[in-house]
Amino acid sequence: MSILPAINNALGADWRERTSAESRLLPQGKLSGPMPWVIAIMIGLTVVATASGLALRNTARAARADVAGGVTVQIVHGAPRERDRQANAALAALKSAPGVAEARLVPQKELDALVEPWLGTTAGDDVNALPVPALIDVRLSGSADANRLGALRQALRGKAPAARIDAQASWLAPVFEAVHALQWLAGGLIALLAFATIATVLLASRNALGNHRGTIEIVHMLGGTDAQIARIFQRSMAVDAAAGGIGGLLLGVVVTSLLGRQFAALGSGMMAAGGLAWSDWLAICCIPVGGVLLAVLTARLTVLSALRRML
User: Fold this and answer.
1) What does the UniProt keyword field contain (predicted)?
2) How does residue 235 score in pLDDT terms, banded at 50, 70 and 90?
């Protein structure tokens, strides 16, 4: 049993000797070079773009869930008494209609608050003189599809002829389309940043190979393999990418937090629903790892391809 520690020590010493010998073949990268800073910028921008895309996705999901079963009924009539009569009749019909989870007549005070920024109404104005329709907020047990809207119109046709029924999701359709376009924009930006990172690592690796071409040829003549040389370059690139990735992650998190505070100050319900969950932050924290792997793989493939052409 005493021979096992000796074997382990011998293997460890041999591995350290090989690593030290490989590291002496070519100069190692330094953190003072431009590569860590370039990668930090790329990772920082990727973090911001990813966080923005995830926040937009969360906002769209929350908004769709909130208005999926929402229906607004407007009683548009110029005579206040007839408008109120049809509103009460429509409210009673909606409460007894199948598939309706909740129906609420919006109070006049809420309507006054809604139109005040646009019409300048105050407590002393005669609001009934304004052509403000009565509103009924309806929540369905399922989604507000065309069939359910048609059934509601049929139920209100005789009791409230002036009723107009609209799905709340239709009002936000342009917003959802804009959010979807912004998500595609964020995804395209992430793809471009990944391509730019690959191109940067490729150019840096080729430049390093050109600077050490003479040393590499001597190493080849002394029996050094392409794999040994490639390991040196990819190890140096891994250190630079890791340093840049950590710095870029911190930069991106700070920028994302500042942007989140700015949007939260707007007081909008949609903006509040666009917060990042713990799973989103976990995905964001994995970005530097992906950046390191991408940089190391690019450096290895670039070096091996160039070394084959040297022979």
Assistant:
1) Cell cycle, Cell division, Membrane, Transmembrane, Transmembrane helix
2) confident
Distance, CA of 184 to CA of 164 (rounded, Å)? 35
Are residue 41 and residue 91 in the same domain, yes or no? no
CB atoms within 10 A of CB 71: 22
CA distance 245 to 147: 52
Tens digit of each residue's pLDDT (9 = 90 or more) over 5-49: 443 454 344 444 444 444 444 444 444 468 889 999 999 999 999
The tokens for 287 are: 């970005």
Domain assignment present for 129: yes
Looking at the structure of the chain, the number of domains it has is 2
DSSP H helices in the chain? 3-23, 34-67, 80-96, 108-119, 146-156, 168-171, 173-211, 213-221, 226-264, 269-272, 278-285, 287-310
Check whether residue 208 and residue 303 sit in a common domain: yes
Q: Which domain holds residue 269?
A: 22-64+173-308
In the block, which residue shows the tokens 């369905």? Answer: 140
